[in-house]
TrEMBL record:
It catalyses: pretRNA = a 3'-half-tRNA molecule with a 5'-OH end + a 5'-half-tRNA molecule with a 2',3'-cyclic phosphate end + an intron with a 2',3'-cyclic phosphate and a 5'-hydroxyl terminus. Residues 181-340 form the EVE domain. This is Thymocyte nuclear protein 1. Residues 117-179 form the tRNA intron endonuclease catalytic domain. One of its GO terms (biological process) is tRNA splicing, via endonucleolytic cleavage and ligation. Its EC number is 4.6.1.16. Belongs to the tRNA-intron endonuclease family. It is found in: Nucleus. It comes from Syncephalis pseudoplumigaleata.
């Protein structure tokens, strides 16, 4: 049976019920106070904001949703030294792993893979590492040398069963997980006719392409060209930005599926992006990459909204400091923050900031 598990500060009395998909009698809840979360290397995932402690404060931005491994570890460690807090009489709370299993509300770890994952998690935890979910990078865990709020992960841990077989391409992909780069690329979502052709290209146009894949041609800026030619790699993530339109903003995420190669449109005199400075026989100096749609965001993260965070989370973002560059780098933290914004309720996020 599935369970919902939370960690939050003992002083916080508010817990949004919409975050708990299961009835009260089917939940198992684990409570620690903030300083003990650090002591026990509890990472969790920031989900919401408490009324007086908004998510923008990463130290107090609670509650956290715990990984199943974190809950299992805490239940295994349960002793008088670990401060478990019962909410109220009549509400289920379990002090040990065995109690939770006996009540049939907790089964992790159960399968062979779950047991393997838990043993790997516990072993790394005992060695002093901090662990978070590695789902975003295709692994089981991100492994940090210290508090994840203060540093980047050192490794991506992937757990496999003893007889599981890997192909060569799968091993290569695993080797690239920790080197993913992030970019922002601009396209025009509204019609504009150049040389009798419409250069409009929105995220919906990308979705309509065969296999939702297209070349990214027409870049005629040397700095942007150099990024595509020298720095973009297969698997890199791209924030798809709608530019030169009534409401500019980030519409979704794409992935680089072919690394830099010559942009043939620069040599085509009939093409809107023809480079008139190139003469017959000249070496083509312009490059492009191929990108594939990963996901369209549930809402557009507008430029106006991004500017609200220019003095906080996005203070160094190239888009907000050198806006005209059509292909630009994005840090991992900026990408994660924008990704979270896109999946948040806009009014709720703005209320927290204010």
């Amino acid at each position: 049976m599935a369970a919902t598990y939370w960690f939050h500060d003992e002083a916080a009395s508010w817990m949004p019920e919409r975050l708990g998909p299961l009835p009260e009698h089917e939940r198992i809840r684990v409570y620690l106070i903030g300083r003990e979360a650090l002591e026990y290397h509890i990472t969790g995932t920031l989900l919401e904001s408490l009324p007086r402690q908004p998510m923008q404060n990463l130290v107090h931005g609670l509650p956290l949703q715990l990984m199943a491994e974190e809950v299992a570890l805490l239940l295994e460690l349960a002793t008088p030294a670990v401060p478990w807090h019962r909410e109220a009489p009549g509400v289920n709370a379990y002090d040990t792993w065995a109690d939770a299993r006996q009540a049939a509300v907790w089964s992790f770890p159960d399968t062979a893979l779950e047991w393997s994952c838990f043993h790997v998690y516990r072993d790394l935890w005992r060695r002093g590492w901090w662990l978070g979910s590695g789902l975003k990078f295709g692994g089981h865990y991100l492994v940090y040398p210290d508090n994840p709020r203060q540093c980047h992960s050192t490794y991506v841990a992937t757990v496999s069963l003893p007889r599981e077989q890997y192909t060569f391409t799968h091993l290569v992909r695993l080797g690239r997980l920790g080197t993913t780069n992030y970019w922002l690329m601009k396209a025009e979502p509204e019609s504009r006719i150049v040389k009798g052709k419409d250069v409009k290209f929105s995220i919906d146009d990308l979705a309509a392409m065969p296999n939702a894949t297209s070349c990214w041609d027409g870049v005629r800026n040397y700095e942007a060209r150099n990024i595509m030619r020298d720095r973009m790699h297969i698997g890199d993530r791209v924030l798809f930005y709608h530019s030169n339109c009534k409401q500019p903003g980030i519409a979704g995420v794409a992935e680089v599926v072919r690394e830099g190669y010559p942009d043939h449109t620069a040599l085509d005199a009939t093409h809107p992006y023809h480079d008139p400075k190139l003469k017959p026989g000249d070496e083509n100096r312009w490059f492009m990459v191929d990108v594939k749609l990963v996901a369209k965001y549930p809402r557009l993260v507008t430029l106006e909204e991004l500017k609200r965070y220019k003095t906080t989370h996005l203070s160094e973002m190239v888009l907000l400091n050198r806006g005209r560059l059509s292909v630009q780098p994005v840090t991992r933290d900026e990408y994660a923050f924008i990704h979270a914004l896109a999946h948040s309720d806009e009014a709720h996020v703005h209320a927290d900031v204010e």
